[in-house]
Request: fold
Amino acid sequence: SQQGEEDPQALSIQEGENATMNCSYKTSINNLQWYRQNSGRGLVHLILIRSNEREKHSGRLRVTLDTSKKSSSLLITASRAADTASYFCATDASGNQFYFGTGTSLTVIP
Amino acid sequence: DTAVSQTPKYLVTQMGNDKSIKCEQNLGHDTMYWYKQDSKKFLKIMFSYNNKELIINETVPNRFSPKSPDKAHLNLHINSLELGDSAVYFCASSQRTYSYEQYFGPGTRLTVT
Reply:
């Protein structure tokens, strides 16, 4: 079965609010990545966090990783309409396995 | 300037046909991938390939085969197409396998009728 489960499946917020999405996985990982997919487009890499890191920032993005709970969160601060997209976590798991999560569909209302 | 390109963007074909999707990357990456995204947006890796190793997802039917004429190209051949093969197929590349960010192509929407 798939490695990553994301929560919530869908999220709708007002522009300017923060958006938080969560990813849970099942086995040990080497790293975890977050990707964005705009409708009808390919995925775009956002951020990579390694298993020995707990938090990482990139612009308005903040990612946390808790390996003891096998979970990660992606926080987008001060959201914009252009942030409307699907967001996926992806895990580089032990044993040369790579899985994408189920995705969170984010809608930012102007 | 496109980093990862795929052709065609849309592909409509009948059951039983054989088709190919082409992928090219100009990033100088060592590893390329093929993914399938179904109607529920679930993404599954089908293959990862570098000049040394092909890793096949064991759930992929052997009707699917990757072919790499050189490091910059990884084409996907599909034999005896079935209705369930309808999906969006994405090519991607990365500097090395898995532990590096992947760059995705725009996708090929395959419809089997």
Observations:
- The radius of gyration of chain B is 13 Å.
- Chain B touches chain A at residues 4, 35, 41-45, 48, 55, 90, 92, 97-107 (CB under 8 Å).
- The mean pLDDT of chain B is 92.
